[in-house]
Amino acid sequence: MSAPPPADRLFNFIGADIGNWRVIRVAPVVGETLPAVPCLSMVGGTLSAPPQGWHLRGITSNERYVTRPEKTELVARQEGLGRTGSTHAALIPIRKSAAWWAMTQDERRDVLEAQSQHIRIGLRYLPAIARRLHHCRDLGTSEPFDFLTWFEYSAQDLAAFEELVAALRASPEWNYVEREVDVRMVREV
Amino acid sequence: MSAPPPADRLFNFIGADIGNWRVIRVAPVVGETLPAVPCLSMVGGTLSAPPQGWHLRGITSNERYVTRPEKTELVARQEGLGRTGSTHAALIPIRKSAAWWAMTQDERRDVLEAQSQHIRIGLRYLPAIARRLHHCRDLGTSEPFDFLTWFEYSAQDLAAFEELVAALRASPEWNYVEREVDVRMVREV
């Protein structure tokens, strides 16, 4: 078994006139928003040419905070992206402050889980809310965000998703979020 | 205070016919080696054109394992790169196995420090051996290594440097190293 090459871990999020998700809202949460666009596409790998519209990139990576017992619980309960019933999606790009990145690992874990229950809150909404985290900070290019989180859920789980994001935004970890945009989509059938 | 843009954190290591460090040895430790070259240069930022010779890239990032007490001790004792007396340097590119990356944060920290004393061993050689770690795994391109560590030291600290690398290579953490090359240099005056 070998690690997948980065081409399999790199994802592009393209806001444009066409795309397989129809954007229903682009809302600023903290800091500068993103331009409103009619559609969004998620495309894996390296693009051969710069796309029309806006373009965010992120890479999936090893987990930075979860412990083995948490990972076991996550794996047992989570479901993948692309479920038939997942007609709704959200892309939430986030940039954290210099104060966050200056903390040591034990301090960041303390804020993220002991103080904020980030992992615990996410578990509460499994398997309804499927999620994939993409990292941007170490891509080696100037990226406007540190993380891009992609969520998928059904129409019945809309209220649950609002609860999830509200709980995270009310947590001490969010004191370290200096830019956040909330993009909501429905699948273009 | 804001985080430095990636251009300030990205470094290129170029093995070629000319350069500011003269290469005295390119030795395989585990797996495929790198081609022998007369010289090596370390160049910050994004290159405008692909260089002659071989080219490795890495990015400095937040620390992944050190705790606050360890960080305090490191900061108090370490010295920077570029000291007048640092006439010797080593570049040690490493690739870790899929088994390493599949571990959770607590498991990796356990192997790295509880079992291997990686941080403790490095502290023992401060300030003599200056060090900077560069990450490659999440650059978003296919990189041959996961980490590039750059070391600088004086001629009197040659034996100490051999002790340091021997201690790390004998540790349980090194069971997860699937490729390692050891490049040694002296400064070209």
- What CATH architecture label of chain A applies? 2-Layer Sandwich
CATH class of chain A: Alpha Beta
Task: Please list the strands of the largest sheet of chain A in the order they lie side by side.
Answer: 4-1-3-2-8-5-7-6
- Please give the domain count of chain A: 1
Which word captures the global form of chain A?
globular
Q: What's the helical proportion of residues of chain A?
A: 25-40%
Q: Report mean pLDDT of chain A, rounded to a whole number.
A: 95
User: Which percent range describes the beta-strand content of chain A?
Assistant: 25-35%
Radius of gyration of chain A: 16 Å
- What is the name of the CATH topology of chain A? Alpha-Beta Plaits
What is the CA-CA span between the terminal residues of chain A? 37 Å
- The arrangement of helices and strands of chain A along the chain is HEEEEHEHHHEEHE
Would you tell me the structural class of the helices and strands of chain A?
Answer: alpha+beta
Name the chain pair with the biggest interface and residue counts per chain. Answer: A-B, 38 and 38 residues
Q: Major beta sheet of chain A, specifics? A: 8 strands, antiparallel
Low-pLDDT regions of chain A: none
Q: How many DSSP H or I helices of chain A?
A: 6
Number of strands of chain A: 8
In quaternary terms, these chains amount to homodimer
Outline of the structure:
The structure is a homodimer of 189-residue chains. Helices cover 26% and strands 33% of the residues of chain A.
